[in-house]
Each structure stands twice: as structure tokens, then as C-alpha cells.
Amino acid sequence: MTADSKKEKIEEIRAEILKRVRPTDEEKTKLETVRKGIIDDIVRIADAQGQCDIVPLSVGSAERNTWLHGNHDIDVFISYPEDIPFDEFYKRSRMILTEMAKTGDSWEDRHSEHPYIHIQKEGFEVDLVPCFRVKSGADIKSAVDRTPFHCAYIKENIKGLEEDVLIMKQFMKGTGVYGSEVRTGGFSGYLTEILTIYYGGFEGVLEHASNWKYGTVIDIADHQTLEHDNPLVVVDPTDPKRNVAAALSLTKFALFIDRAREFLKNPILDYFTPKSYPPMTPAEFEKMMTARGTEMIGISFQTPPKAEDTLYPQLFRMEKSLEELLTRNEFTVINTFSWSEEMEKSVVFIELLTTVLPPLQKRAGPPVWNAANAESFCKKYKNNPTTFSFSIENEKYVAEIPRKYKTAEYLIEDMIFKEAALGRHVRDSMKNGYDVLREKEIMEIKGDDFWKFMNEKLTAQIEP
Amino acid sequence: MTADSKKEKIEEIRAEILKRVRPTDEEKTKLETVRKGIIDDIVRIADAQGQCDIVPLSVGSAERNTWLHGNHDIDVFISYPEDIPFDEFYKRSRMILTEMAKTGDSWEDRHSEHPYIHIQKEGFEVDLVPCFRVKSGADIKSAVDRTPFHCAYIKENIKGLEEDVLIMKQFMKGTGVYGSEVRTGGFSGYLTEILTIYYGGFEGVLEHASNWKYGTVIDIADHQTLEHDNPLVVVDPTDPKRNVAAALSLTKFALFIDRAREFLKNPILDYFTPKSYPPMTPAEFEKMMTARGTEMIGISFQTPPKAEDTLYPQLFRMEKSLEELLTRNEFTVINTFSWSEEMEKSVVFIELLTTVLPPLQKRAGPPVWNAANAESFCKKYKNNPTTFSFSIENEKYVAEIPRKYKTAEYLIEDMIFKEAALGRHVRDSMKNGYDVLREKEIMEIKGDDFWKFMNEKLTAQIEP
After folding, report:
1. Is-annotated flag, keyword DNA damage (chains A, B) (predicted)?
2. Which of A212, A353, A391 sits opposite B357 (nearest CB)?
3. What are the tens digits of pLDDT across the range B334-345?
4. How many C-beta atoms surround the C-beta of residue A185 within 10 A?
5. Residues A253-271: what's their mean pLDDT?
6. Which residues of A fall within a CB distance of 8 Å from B255?
7. Is the CB of A251 inside 8 Å of chain B's CB atoms?
8. Which helix (H) or strand (E) holds A167?
9. Residues contacting residue A152 through CB under 8 Å, at least 6 positions apart
């Protein structure tokens, strides 16, 4: 394909994608109406409560015209003067949220240390978040205080690039790198918008991303004051110390580089549609495991009643910790991944070369010239009737001894609470009971979503 | 045990060991007579051939009074003026050796590039080695020219310590670290003598050896001119560039440190008797392998008709090379060792965690930002109907593919000539055919020596 015909092809793709992702006029009107209603409600309720110093702020992609067709998210912040004490802020904001909850078709309290509710209203998913009206993004009192500055920055700088943001977001969705929640570890909307502004549009982002390497730094406001060790560093134009791409995982960073490079080589529409994996049947799973010849274990426990962004770091830490525990004990781990269903079970899966090791274990001790350690190693294993052999190899004592953990299951059951680093909520839940699932038990897990997930884990393909 | 009672105990041990290892007067007279006869023969033959410029030199432990009871070795060198050309040296020395061969009860030509014969005479093992009479150990024309200097140095410096050398040698024999042939990798007689002189006797050597570490340097003549990367560096007092301990393996160096330290803690006679392993029966071997739960493979081929010091480095290199080949292909090697019988078979043994791996292999590719390598990796594995999955993990492409080498046997058979570094003589012999032995075939190997060897390899214990 020549450069010119590629350019033409990308133009065609842009047009086609825009057709798909640009919100309709009807959608826009609907959203505008609902949003206005919410803001009016807030003002009315605040006034009735004598809270005349609050200001409702519409933030989020809807506000900056970078929302995708079919996306029904509205974010409204309720800002308070920055000098009121947190106690008062907390109490007063709860008063407004309590009333606002009643205006929704349904609602959910999502506050952790920060008050925050989610309501559903006329088909929209609405986040209502109290915050402080601080002077700048660098002077925030709580994490959410940055958002209004982000929104303002994008509104000011995005003009003329709104459509590029839409196309960029859809490309990221289609290639599986969009979404900054911990579970995904991809690009946030704000990050996507900054990249689009910085590189002047969709093609500019892809061309530059094709050449990114670990540690690439983008400092759009030219005011970085802190080093970051992340795959990608995008200095927040509203806060010189913050990396907007801090939550981007190395895997998603690398995947995006690959997808950008490949798309530019052969621009086709397929990149804009997420690959979907059909649910595999338990019988297909069994057949696949036989073909792989590996062994799968699942550690299953009641999902802790926590938000995904609290839970997933703990699941990932558990994967890593179990992999280390198994590797230390000479099991070979091939893959780990985690499945979690709210109110149901969470399962950490570990795929192993084999779950059974021979009765003999060869243990290397200290070098002979480390006299103190040598003495304790010899005391333990020399002249021990259970050792197979005790000798010196190169500079070290070596004992061939009976293996304590001949199966991965026994190792996990014996050591999971002693040697695995478990997050607080996962540990609490596991203390109430957990199961070690083998293939037969894994086959009993129900639900299309789970079997789609398993299919993706076992047969993932980067396409096109 | 108090320091005094230990000292006393060591005195008792010295006395007891001397009783055992000091040659009897009868032995001494006999050796003196045979040696004198050999020297007389050399002079007589040389004179008859008109070779009046040669000088026979008695070297070796017999000459320096450091030989052990029961040792019947005599070393006599036939020295030539250093300025004669090698051709002439070779021709003339062969003339003498040809005649000397006839004086033995039997004889053997041991020359490689250097002429050299071994004769048996009246129960003695006699080495007859032509050499050049060079000016110093640093000016040698062939490797053997050093020996007369070594002998002279020890004779001059050993006075009063001869008995300590005997005890030292027996301690080294008893602990399995004596002998500088490649197969053993232990201490040579000359090295033992220098250590005894340097540290002032048997106890001095043990006390200092207890505190040796990798890289210990002993420069008795204080004239080192070259760095050596060896566990122990003992600069040759007759050649500043040479390390007398160059052939000492790290394992034997470390073992000696351990043995010295342990003996000084608890001095008992047991250290002076080599541990012997009874031959195990094939049935015991089978039972032991079941207990270990590991798997043993032997690669068996006709022993190349070469001296052990030529053959063993090649066997050791083959062990290392096979271990690397297997490890690269994800097999876990536990032990390797080599057995060799002159005129019969040599067998390189490899003990593995398992000889069978699952059909799936996970292969990590280049980082995405290595565009050239990425392209060839993707070309090979992406959209390949045989891959299980193709994805990105952290910064790298990862393909789950069918494993080519699912058994260690197939890997070895397919790759031994392509990827294993084989010494010339081993390769030549294997090209004529080799077998991969499994447990059943190993059980068919005959000979007490082999089954002692196997017993030692599987049940080695450092004792006391």
C-alpha cells in the first residue's frame, strides 16, 4: 500500500468510525436535559439546606464533547469552599447526597473515605461527587479535586480535536487498552485526550506511539518536577508532580505500541471492534487442558464486598505471591489470572507445568568458607537418616533430601497464610474458608462470562 | 575436648598413621636397588649408543623421601642438553627408550607428542621420561622439564618435614582430595609438599586451610608475576608464572577446607581411611530410583582409546553441554556424572526431575519496541494455526506453542551433534554409534567397580 492510499484508507476509516461513535442529536439533547435537571436539583436542595456556598460542576467526557455514542455517563461534582474543615464538608455533602439519592430511579452509596453516590436516572449512569474548590490541581485536598481542573484544561485545549478523541477512544476500546480501572490497567479518557492534543490528532498519536519505548516522557505543559518509573510518563498539565499514565500497565502500554504500529502498516476497520471470545464449554476446557498437557489449579473464596479497584490489586498481588511461593518450591508456573464476581466467588488460577514433583529435593547450602552457616546446614542435613546424600559441589554443601511439598495443592494449603502476601480483604475472606479447585471442580463453574474469560485466557490471539 | 587434649590426640594419630604409611626398611632397600639398576641401565645403553651427553635424573616422591608405604612408583628422567633440536631429541630418546623397554617385565608406550614409556619391573611401576636440562623452571622447552626443578626444590626444603608430608598425603587420600589427574581434580604430590613446607607441617596446613577462601594465594618464593583465576593459587617456586594448584577443582578445594576444619574440631583416625562404597545391586539401584522419584538417562558409547587425562575433560564438557541443552529446553537437571572403562564403554549419566514435558511450551519473544525482532517473531507465531495463544505480557510478545522436544531422549538424539559441545575423541566415537540408556538398560551394566561408583554417586556422604 502506498503512503497516499494509506492516507486515503485512514480517511475512509475515520468517516466510518465517526458514523458509529458520534452521539446523535437526540442523544445530545437527552443528555443535556438530564444533566441540567441534576444540576438544578443540586442547587435547589442546597438552597433549601442553606448551603449557598456550593457550586455544581459538570465534568467528564459529556461536558467536553468527547463522549461516545451509547455512553450514558454523567459526572457532576459538588464543590465546596476549600477552607471548610473536612468534618463539615463530610456532613454537609452527605446532606445533599441523601436528598439527591431520592431523585434517581435507583442509587448506590459508593463512598469509601470520600462521600460519593451513584444514581441511575432516565437511563443515565450518574456519579455525584462532592469536592473542594481548590486554587489549582497541585493544591488539592482530596484526590477528586483534580477532576474539575482536568475538565477545564481539556475544554480549553481540545477545540477542533473532539472527533479525533472519539476515534482514538474507539481504537483503544477495539484493541483492548481503554479503561484506567486497575483490572484493565489501560488508558483513561483524560490520558487519551492529552495524547490527542499533544500529538495533534489520531494519526499523530499512532505514529508516535509506534516508536514509544519504556520510560517515554510527555510533558505537555513543560513543567515536570518529579521523576517517575513508569512505562509511560505523561506529566499532568494541571499538576507538575503527577503522572497521568501512572495506572497504565506495562502490558497495555506494549500492546498499544504493537497495535499502533500494525494499524499504520495495514489500516483496516477491524482494529475498532473489540475481539470477543465465545464462552467455551466445560468439555472444551477439559479437551484444551489435555491438549496443553499442563495442570490448572484455582483458589476460590467468597468475593470480598469491596470495589473492583480495591479488590483487583489484592488479587494480582495474590497471583504474584503464589507464583513466587510455587517457584521457590520448584514448581514451574506458566500462567496466573484472576476471576471475580461480585457477591459470588473470586478465583485465582494458576497453570503449572505439573502439580507433582518427585520425592527427592536437591538443596544447595552455603559455601564451605561461610563457617557459621555451614555449621547449621551440616547440623541439619549431615548424618540425617532421611537424607539421600550429602556432598560438596563446587564451593557449596549440597544435600539431597526428602521433598516436603510434593504437590502444589499441599504447598498452597500449608503455606498460603504463612508465606503468601495477601491483601487484607482477600485474607479476611479466605480465613472464612477457601477451596483449591482442580480441573473437575473448575468445570463446575457456571456462567457465560466466566467461560468467555477462560476461553480468552487460554486462546488469546492478537488480531488482526 | 580441650586444646591440650586435642594436641595430644593429634600426636597419637600422627604416630599411628606413620606406623601405617612409613615405608619399611626392606621396602626402601628394594626400591633403592631397583632404582639404581634402572639408572645403571640407562647409562649403559646411552654409552653403547654414543649418547654421552645424557644424564639420568631420579625424580618423584621416592627421591625426596615422601613416598607412602605400598607405593611402588619410580620416576626416572633422561635429560638432554637444552640446545639440541627437538627432532634429534626425539630420535635419540626413542633409541634409549626402545632398549629400556626390554629391561622391564612388561612395558607400555605412553608418548603423545612427548616420548615417554612406562615399564613394570620387579613389582615397581617405572616412568621413564626424556627431558631437556634447561637452566630454570621458567625456561622449559617441554612441560616435563619442570619436574627435576620441582624435585630439587623439595629435596632442598623438605628436611625435617618428610613425615608431615606422609601424614598430609594420607589425610588427603583418606578424605578423597589427593591426586591431580583430571578425573580427580585434587592435590598433587608436589602441591602437598609445598603446602607442608609453607605452613610448617601437617597441623599448620590444616589450620590455615580451615580459613581458606576462593582465590587464596600462596607465594612461597615471593615472586608471582601473573594473576590466576583459580580457587587456590600456589605460585611455583621454580616458575613465577605457574600456579601449582591450577588443576585443583573448586569442589576438591572446598572439600579439603571442610575436612581440615572438621578434623581440627574432632581429630580421629577415620579421616585417614578413604570411604568405600560397596557395590549396589541393580535391584537396589531400581529401588533407589523409585525412592528418589527422579529419572536417569545414560548416553553410552565406546571409550575412545585415549589416556584418562585426555578423555575426562571431554566427558566433563559433554556433561556440562548436555545439561545446558536440556535446561535451555526446560528440562530440570539434578545431577550429571561420567563413568568410563578402558576398551569398554563410557557412559555420561544425567539425572532429571522428569524426562517428559507437556505438549505446550510458552515462548517469550522480544520486547514490542524491538521492531525488527518483533516482526520476525510475529511472522513465525502469530496467526499460526498450531499456536495455542499469542499475546503480550509486560513488554514482550508471548506465544504458547506446541513443544518440539517433549522427551529428553528425543531432544538428545535430535540435537546432540548439532548443539552439544563434544570433544573430538568423544564425538568420533559417538559418530560410530551410541545408545541412550534408561533405567532398565542401566541395570544391565556389569562390574563391581561400576556399581560401587553408582552407589557413591547416589548415596555419597561426607564422613565423619
Report:
1. no
2. A353
3. 999 999 999 999
4. 18
5. 97
6. 368, 392
7. yes
8. helix A162-174
9. none
Degrees, nearest 5: CA angle B408-B410-B413: 105
Contacts of B38-43 with C-beta under 8 Å, sequence gap 24+, read B38/B74, B38/B76, B38/B100, B38/B103, B38/B121, B38/B126, B38/B128, B39/B76, B41/B100, B41/B103, B42/B76, B42/B78, B42/B96, B42/B100, B42/B128
CA distance A110 to chain B (A): 32
Q: How confident is the model at residue B1 (pLDDT cuts 50, 70, 90)?
A: confident
pLDDT at A62: 86
Note the pLDDT tens digit of each residue in B131-169.
Answer: 999 999 889 998 899 999 999 999 999 999 999 999 999
Largest CA distance in chain B: 85
Kindly tell me if the per-residue pLDDT of A112 is higher than 90.
Answer: no
**Environment class of B54 (CB within 10 Å of its CB; exposed 0-12, middle 13-18, buried 19+):** buried
Nearest to B368 among A257, A389, A395 (CB): A257
CA-nearest residue to B393 within chain A is A251
Write the pLDDT tens digit of every residue in B31-90: 999 999 999 999 999 999 999 999 999 998 988 999 999 988 999 999 999 999 999 999
Bridge partner list, A184: none
Nearest-neighbour CA in chain B from A376: distance (Å)? 13
Domains of chain B and CATH, by start: 23-135 (3.30.460.10), 162-272 (1.10.1410.30), 282-356+406-459 (3.30.70.590), 367-397 (no CATH)
For residue A358, which residues of chain B lie inside 8 Å, CB to CB? 292-294, 353-354
pLDDT at A3 exceeding the cut of 90: no
Best residue in B232, B275, B392, B456 for a mutation probing chain A (most A CBs within 10 Å):
B392
- In this predicted structure, the answer to whether residue B188 has a pLDDT above a threshold of 90 is yes
Nearest 5°: phi and psi at B170?
Answer: -70, -35
CB-nearest to A293 from B353, B360, B371 is B360
Residue B9 neighbours by CB distance under 10 Å? 15
C-alpha cell at A387: 537424607
Q: A315 and A321 in contact (C-beta within 8 Å)?
A: no
- Residues in contact with A50: Cβ distance below 8 Å, sequence separation at least 6, in sequence order: none
Asked whether residue A319 carries a pLDDT value surpassing 80, the answer given is yes
Q: What is the pLDDT of residues B302-334, one digit of tens each?
A: 999 998 999 999 999 999 999 999 999 999 999
**Any chain A CB within 8 A of the CB of B376?**
no
Is the Cβ pair B254, A212 closer than 8 Å? no
Chain B 127-186, residues with CB within 8 Å of chain A CB atoms: none
Helices B3-21 and B162-175 pack at an angle, to 10 degrees, of: 90
Q: Look up residue A21 and give its amino acid.
A: V
Give the tens place of pLDDT for each residue, A144-196: 999 999 999 999 999 999 999 999 999 999 999 999 999 999 999 999 999 99
A29 close to B (CB below 8 A)? no
ipTM given for this complex:
0.94
Q: Give me the total of CB pairs closer than 8 Å, taking one residue from chain A and one from chain B.
A: 140
Provide the chain A residues 214-233 that lie in CB contact (below 8 A) with chain B. 214, 231
